Amino acid sequence: MSISYNKVILVGRLTRDPEIRSTMNGNNVANFHLAVDGGTSNNQDGTDFIKIVAFGKQADFASNYLKKGKLILVEGSLHINQWTDRDNIKRETAEIWANRMNFMETKKAQEANEFSGMPIAVEEGFSDIDNISDTDPIEEIGDEAFLGDDTFLEGDLDDLENDLSSDNKPI
């Protein structure tokens, strides 16, 4: 008698939103890929992209809550699909059939990740960043700015208010 055990636990980020399909009898199936770091891969950066398949309630969970970039834990089993393509070449692919999925970030961390990819507005005066030389002086703000003593800024704020009041653009 042989003993076998097939269990996989992965933690990674979704590479895109799950793709949801239905079987002929109406059960949902979700497909998505996880980017998992640190695997033994031929990729230079060591990231593996692993196909995950979820059925039934797990597929519904994926459909409702999983989005690109979410860090999740997937627990499931390894399945190898084998088929013959149109050119009569035998093919196979590995996928993980998910039994359980959990979020691995707090809601606060998830929100921070959503905002981290937002574009940053650049002021017109700084849009030509390539023309700044290494010898240009850099002004420093002293520690008093962080101690609540803002009296050193009063003159600068007055100048800013004058500039804004003479500008016809809305604030």
TrEMBL record:
Keyword Transferase: no
InterPro entries: NA-bd_OB-fold, Primosome_PriB/ssb, ssDNA-bd
Alphabetical keyword list: DNA-binding
UniProt keyword DNA-binding, yes or no: yes
Cellular component, GO annotation: nucleoid
BP terms from Gene Ontology: DNA replication
SUPFAM superfamilies: Nucleic acid-binding proteins
Gene Ontology molecular function, alphabetical: single-stranded DNA binding
Assembly information from the UniProt record: Homotetramer.
Protein name (record): Single-stranded DNA-binding protein
